[in-house]
């Protein structure tokens, strides 16, 4: 903050749009904010363990995201910082070039605020990051460090990736907003692949406006990502924010797995439905039986088959530096036949098309992001089955915090929409966010 300014210093936990408004009113605040974030991070990081690498230079740059620190998941290439991919194989690896999305962030003036912990190659072996609400619990994965860093108020925006549930689930576990755009909306050039038919780049932030702004600035195409599907362009007015879609038509989807949902998560979900109805939303139940029946076997077949082609050679070259978890998954992938893979890919295309018809008359789906609170312990990052259907069909999905469970850990809800209807899904999420008026605040670990 400038010496003679009466404006408040940006607080820990401020959102991106909130910060940009403050920076516009007081440019000196942008110059000091990165240092304040770095100071907080150094104080909390020994307990949180969210970062693989912290930045050396947090000088604010000029641009639409000038002064905004953005943390980068450590499977996304950075030319000036190590990119370990969560693996001992790449412990000291510094890429020759930035990933497309990192280069774009730099062009926008963002401060690249270090590399956040990822599970091994964004798969299942966890890193050391803890949940800032309770260090005895997982933050989720694979985007563990990005979710925890935003939840702890260390950065207002972080990049993650999702192949099954690696943005939406950890967002719910940490009490932040998570957004997985439609498949192909953001180029994955420079992002280590796990399953090219399923890999998405996504965001963690504190408000729906923040992830909407990120999408408006970062959506694009790259000649090196053949799966790119450009979204209709849109802009977000910093002063006004995203216009909410008032009184939306919501399709409640529980799936057959509802019986496994924790009681507290069920209670939060029912309370959300009641509140949204009271505020004027049209809320009806639908089943999506076909998607429920095929998505899990099909998505795991696609993922295991494609991951096996990517990692088999790496395992052969570095058997002592690859986890047993990775080796087991690759062995499973080798059992998949070409016919099984092609059948799964056909089911993916069919279900993506069917979702448009199934949601005719609705603006978005209201469902769960997870079965309940983050599991205890760090060995397992949680079940992705409530996230996988929307990853499978490439649909946009938003996780919103909505309450707490019996252990004081966050619980959330998920908004999903038809493929490439990202802005409408975000507008629905903005209305839901305002209707719930729920702010979990900063977790205990952030108050050290």
How does this structure look, described?
With 448 residues, this protein is α/β, with parallel strands linked by helices. The protein is built from twelve helices and eleven strands. It has an eleven-stranded mixed beta sheet with strand order 1-3-2-4-6-5-10-11-9-7-8, sandwiched between helices. The protein is globular and about 60 Å long.
Average pLDDT metric: 96
Oligomer: single chain
* Strand tally: 11
Q: What portion of residues is helical?
A: 25-40%
- Which residues sit in consecutive blocks of at least 5 with pLDDT less than 50? 1-6
The largest pleated sheet is described as:
11 strands, mixed
Query: Which second-level CATH architecture applies?
Result: Alpha-Beta Complex
Instruction: State the strand order across the main sheet.
Output: 1-3-2-4-6-5-10-11-9-7-8
- H/E topology pattern: HHEEHEHEHEEHEHEHHHEHEEH
CATH superfamily (homologous) name: Amidase signature (AS) domain
Task: Characterize the overall form.
Answer: globular
CATH topology: Amidase signature (AS) enzymes
Query: Proportion of β residues?
Result: 5-15%
| Structural class designation | alpha/beta
């Amino acid at each position: 903050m400038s010496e003679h300014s009466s404006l408040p210093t940006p607080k820990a936990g401020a959102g991106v749009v909130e910060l940009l408004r403050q920076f516009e009113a007081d440019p000196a605040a942008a110059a000091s904010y990165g240092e304040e974030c770095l100071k907080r991070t150094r104080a909390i990081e020994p307990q949180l363990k969210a970062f693989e690498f912290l930045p050396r230079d947090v000088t604010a740059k000029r641009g639409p995201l000038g002064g905004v620190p953005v943390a980068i998941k450590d499977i996304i290439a950075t030319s000036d910082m190590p990119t370990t991919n969560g693996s001992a194989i790449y412990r000291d690896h510094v890429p020759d070039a930035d990933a497309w999305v990192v280069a774009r962030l730099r062009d926008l003036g963002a401060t690249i605020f270090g590399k956040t912990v990822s599970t091994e190659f964004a798969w299942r072996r966890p890193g050391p990051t803890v949940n800032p609400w309770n260090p005895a619990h997982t933050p989720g994965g694979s985007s563990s460090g990005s979710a925890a860093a935003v939840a702890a108020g260390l950065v207002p925006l972080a990049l993650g990736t999702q192949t099954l549930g690696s943005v939406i689930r950890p967002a719910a576990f940490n009490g932040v907003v998570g957004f997985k755009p439609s498949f192909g909306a953001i180029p994955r050039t420079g992002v280590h692949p796990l399953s090219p038919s399923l890999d998405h780049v996504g965001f963690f932030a504190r408000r729906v406006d923040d992830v909407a702004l990120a999408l408006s600035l970062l959506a694009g195409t790259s000649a090196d990502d053949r799966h790119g599907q450009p979204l209709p362009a849109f802009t977000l007015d910093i002063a006004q924010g995203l216009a909410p879609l008032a009184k939306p038509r919501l399709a409640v989807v529980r799936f057959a797995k509802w019986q496994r949902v924790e009681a507290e998560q069920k209670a939060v979900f029912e309370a959300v439905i009641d509140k949204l109805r009271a505020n004027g939303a049209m809320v009806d139940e639908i089943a999506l039986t076909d998607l429920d029946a095929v998505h899990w076997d099909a998505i795991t077949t696609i993922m295991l088959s494609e991951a096996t082609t990517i990692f088999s050679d790496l395992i052969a070259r570095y058997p002592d530096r690859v986890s047993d978890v990775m080796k087991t998954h690759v062995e499973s992938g080798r059992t998949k036949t070409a016919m099984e893979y092609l059948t799964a890919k056909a089911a993916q295309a069919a279900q993506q098309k069917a979702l448009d018809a199934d949601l005719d008359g609705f603006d978005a789906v209201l469902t769960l992001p997870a079965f309940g609170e983050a599991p205890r312990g760090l060995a397992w990052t949680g079940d992705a089955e409530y996230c996988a259907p929307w990853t499978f069909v490439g649909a946009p999905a938003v996780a919103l915090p909505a309450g707490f469970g019996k252990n004081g850990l966050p619980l959330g809800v998920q908004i999903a929409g038809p493929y490439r209807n990202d802005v409408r899904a975000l507008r629905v999420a903005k209305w839901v966010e305002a209707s719930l008026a729920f702010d979990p605040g900063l977790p205990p670990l952030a108050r050290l």
